[in-house]
User: What shape does this take?
Amino acid sequence: MIKQKLNRFTPYIFMAPAIIIITIALLYPLGYMVYGSFRAWDPSQNISESEFIGLKNYITLFYDPAFRESLGVTLTFAICVVFSELVIGVGLALMLDRNIRGMSVLRTLFILPMMIAPVVVGLMWRYMYHPTVGTFNKTLKSLGLDGIDWLGQNALLSVIIADVWQWTPFIFILSLAALQSLPRSALEAAKIDGATSWQQIIHIKLPLMMPVLIVTALLRLIDAFKVLEVILVMTEGGPGLSTEILALRISRTATEFRELGVAAAMSNYLLILLLILTVSMYAITRIQENRAARLARQIQEEY
Amino acid sequence: MLKTFKRISLGASTAIALATAAFAGPYDEFAGTTLVVNFPAHPHYNAVMKVLPEFTKETGIEVEVDQLPYMKMRERQTLELGQDEGDYDLVAYVVFSKADYVYADQLENLARYFMNPKLADPSYDPDDLIDGYVYNIGFAGGNKGYLAGKTGSLFGVPYGSETSVLGYRKDIFEKHNLAVPETYEEMLDIACKIPQLEPGMGGLSSRAASGHHAAHAFLLHLAPLGGRVFDNSWNPIVNNAAGVEAANALKTIVDCGPEGAASFGFGEALGSFLNGDTAMFLDTTVVAGQIDDPKKSKVVGKVGWAMHPMGVRRGSQTGGFGIGIPKNAENKDAAFLLMQWLTSKTGDKLTALAGGNPSRFSTHADADVNAKFPHMSIFGEALKHADPDWRPIIPVWGKINADLGTTLSKVLTEDLDIQTALDGVAERAKGIMDEAGYYTWQ
Assistant: This one.
């Protein structure tokens, strides 16, 4: 009898180490952040010494125009970079999905930007955008054109370009891998039926790649919401608040303003936003899969 | 016989011990101690690194230095000073950290060290330390909580003090027969004449990038033009006529400055002057070393120095670093000895000769220092007018400063109306001050 009872607990005993590790490594810091967000917490204080203020940090942030502007900048930045990177990355993958001599060298070259440390990327682009000695304005001036005030009037566009340069390769390599694992039979059948290359891309390759593309876009989106170093080095969030994305505002709130509670509340807003995005993307994928399955069933029933 | 010998030996050793105690140096007790100190990566502290071996040689106290970029240093200190037992025996801190550290009771009050006859050197001469810096960097609890006053006391000693001076291109000024500006009006006039006289060259390079840089540049002009951020009752007055004039001065400087000036941080502004792209540079004295370094500068020997121009009054910035002993330090007495040695007349002179920024009047007037760095006498003169209240040093300043800097950046890049912008800053500052309890007594 006792032996039977013990046997029933065996799976839980085996799972215990994993559960303990997850609780310590994931839930404890998360809980700490949530707990901190309800307090007026200065970095000089121990969290237990700080005053409990309920939802005040969340309410203050909700009505704070600087936070809302920062949220707007974050959304604009994230949507623009992920969209541009998807278009360029998938486009490049479609063009290079063939047997070309030296393909492996080319692929390595393409993914080089991803390997560079973000601070270096920020510094590099900052000097390339420099109004007088920067590469871009020097080139423009040598062509007889006026220089562009990259990090002044066009700061958000400039940081978007830098991010697209660094992270398009990520989408490119994943898209290329997805393309090369597509079922050849579907493509051959389409070719036999006379589908043009464009039709193959629109009706076969892209729909089949979609699950991979959604996960890739989601990963990039999460990353784009958290990007910090490149923007910090390039513009420090300026001019005004035009490039101050949430991650940068959180960092400034914690270090410059010394308001750890507010920074924690801001991080929770960001977390909620990312959770909503993740859940809705998975929901869209689920709906699409269900619709495809339903269509497949209908076709089978008709025949 | 043996007894007599023992007695003589005992007497002799007692006499030697007593004599040693009578002639023991102030450092003997601490010889062999290792101090861990936290200094910033900064030209002044790079000079300090060259001087420290001399301290160890003289005292027998070893010094281990944790040198960090200064913003990282603040983060690290925030963590370290909050512990029960800290790693650091002595820390260098930026002036705006004073309010936070003292308010959180994390720095030692220095009174009991200067009162201790075994530790305090009678030849230290504290009156020789530059007044503005002592009050700005080391003093707390006086008028307004951060200025000189009867209720204040000392928590740190200035070390690596900076003020603002005007650097100008002697060759360009001579070529066009321009007089070195002494007032704001003259400076702004010349700043906008330069681009016409020397096409491609900007008038004056200034920091202007969003945030801390723009706020710093604005405050540099606010004090001499007669303004303040708060009145004596903590009401924001940054939006009064003097405030508007200071913002106008900044805008004029940026508009007549080198290309892309609106996005310049300190590095770009200095780089532009070093590269010969501007005729003037109004900022900290710490740059003098780089301007005379042929590896970094294209304008070696071409730069003259003058006092920060006058508006309705003289008022150059007070900035830089101070050194203090954390409350949770392990070797506080030895740390005080190091602090005293570094900021003594000898230590200050040695550091100045190694390329640092002296904190004493006597070092600025010293013949050896002036022979090596001829600009030092003008810097010493400028320091007499260093204004300890050019920016408030209160715990909530970080937030107000950031708002001021981002709003001014909008003035410079998006042509936001200056009065509207400063009214907004004043209104938001009032809210922040109210929340922090500054109007409790009103």
The first strand of chain B starts at residue 34 and ends at 40. Chain B has a mean pLDDT of 90. The domain at 28-163+318-383 of chain B is CATH 3.40.190.10 (D-Maltodextrin-Binding Protein; domain 2).
